[in-house]
Amino acid sequence: MDTSEPRYAEIARVMAASGDWITPWFEPGTPFWGKPPLSFWAQAFSIKSLGLTEFSIRLPSFLVTVALTILVYHAGIVIGDKRMAKWATLILSTMLLPMVSAGAVLTDPFFAFGVTLSMLAFVVAPLKPTWFWRYGFFVGIALGLLSKGPLAVVLVAIAIVPWLALQPDRRTRINVFPWLSGLFLIFALSLPWYIAAEIKTPGFLQYFIVGEHFLRFLDGGWNGDLYGTAHEKPLGRIWIEWLFASLPWGPLGLAVLLWSMIRSRRRTKLACFVKKPVVTFLIFWTLAAMVFFTFSANILWTYVLPSLPALALLLAQAATATCCVSTSRRTSYALIAAGSLVPAFSIAVGAIALVAPAQLKTEKELVMAAAQDLEAGKKLYFVGSRPFSARFYSRGQAELIPSSRLGSLLEAGQSALIAMPRSQAFDALRMSASSLKLIFQSKRYSLYDLTPMPEKHAQ
């Protein structure tokens, strides 16, 4: 569904078709400098392995989200116990944004996995210094650099640096990690692609580092975006996005927190709970993304995804430590009801997609209605605007023409398919020397079969 998902799906499709594994291409001749290629690599490889289908392109997001929940489960056992780990996995799996991200073509699941791996490794390695956790910190940063860029380092540092400053055993914790070989590992995994991308398409680093990481952050109405539009929001809106993304558990956790602060007995337990180093670590991690993006007006709700594994662990830790998770039937029913909300919502959306696909924000059905004519050689034109879903489902055949050129197209006397916004006037079409037949209507567009009238064409 438009806008982000088919845009990224089309980039992956072009990568798989062209065999260019260095530069993601927005469209032929236009490199995509907005994101590093990790998610596109995974999606293009899936297309190569399983064919070009919605399933194959979405599968990598699902697998990396499953891997993320596995990380949360195993880390939960180390920093808590198996009961806490199960609760953390359940909470994370039934939050709104993780559920959506697991089934969508986005870069965010890969970025969240990298940040989560680094953050969990940092807190788990001092307790369980295996090679996986000790080097996982550096691998996670490299994955973040290859999925969204330097933002991975920023989010990890925002959480870890102030937390370490509060820990008396900070030197012991730091010395667990192989910093020299770990930093070499980060550069070995991520730097070659950055160099190759700049060599192949000069200007990439200037746009990506300066534009995407500074101008986009500082300017809510940034006009330098080459691939879309700025997402201008009021400063601080990220906290509202976090509440929405973490449904139902984020608002529920806040409600329990407020209730605990009001009651004196609960307030004492809460104060003791918050003093635990692992709890303060999870709090810093939970807040890192929101604190950072509070000062940016150019945001999307997916930006909070890296903070949600920490929230899941924090809520699970709180529930098991303070005996909020009891065996009472009333509590069990309440938790089952809360955990069922997002899965029920997902099933409802899936049912709508099956029963009324034309009502969704996608031009899949419109392109399918034009499929036979496209195979026969007819051209498909979108007037004024061309959704990314039209590009993807037409395999790049859908062309864009401005409204000012519509008259020239009609006068050319050629047979074509024309998709126009439903809200747009069709006077130019009605006045043309052509036979116009409406063949399909989606939620946003009307598809017309444009056939020149023989007698007019002959004149």
Quick structural summary:
With 459 residues, the protein is an alpha/beta fold. Helices cover 63% and strands 8% of the residues.
Description:
By secondary structure, this protein is of the alpha/beta class. 63% of the residues lie in helices and 8% in strands. Helix 2 (38-50) crosses helix 3 (54-79).
Kindly, what is the distance between the CA atoms of the first and last residues, rounded to a whole number of angstroms?
A: 44 Å
Count, helices: 23
The fraction of residues in strands falls at 5-15%
**Mean of residue pLDDT values:** 88
Helix content: 55-70%
For the largest beta-sheet, the strand count, sense and barrel status come to: 5 strands, mixed
Number of domains: 2
Order of helices and strands: HEEHHHHHHHHHHHHHHHHHHEHEHEHEEH
Indicate the radius of gyration in whole angstroms.
Answer: 26 Å
C-alpha geometry? globular
Number of β-strand runs: 7
Secondary-structure-based class equals alpha/beta
Spatial sequence of strands, sheet with the most strands = 4-3-5-7-6
- Residue runs with pLDDT of under 50 for 5 or more positions: none
Supply database-style keywords:
459 residues; 5-stranded mixed beta sheet; two-stranded antiparallel ribbon; 2 domains
Blueprint (SSEs and pairs):
Elements: H1 4-18, E1 25-27, E2 30-31, H2 38-50, H3 54-79, H4 82-93, H5 96-102, H6 108-124, H7 131-147, H8 151-165, H9 170-175, H10 179-200, H11 204-218, H12 238-245, H13 249-262, H14 264-274, H15 277-293, H16 308-321, H17 329-355, H18 364-369, H19 371-375, E3 379-383, H20 388-393, E4 399-401, H21 406-411, E5 416-421, H22 427-430, E6 434-441, E7 445-452, H23 454-458
Parallel strand pairs: 3-4, 3-5
Antiparallel strand pairs: 1-2, 5-7, 6-7
Helix pairs in contact: 1-2, 2-3, 3-4, 3-6, 4-16, 6-7, 6-8, 7-10, 8-15, 13-14, 15-16
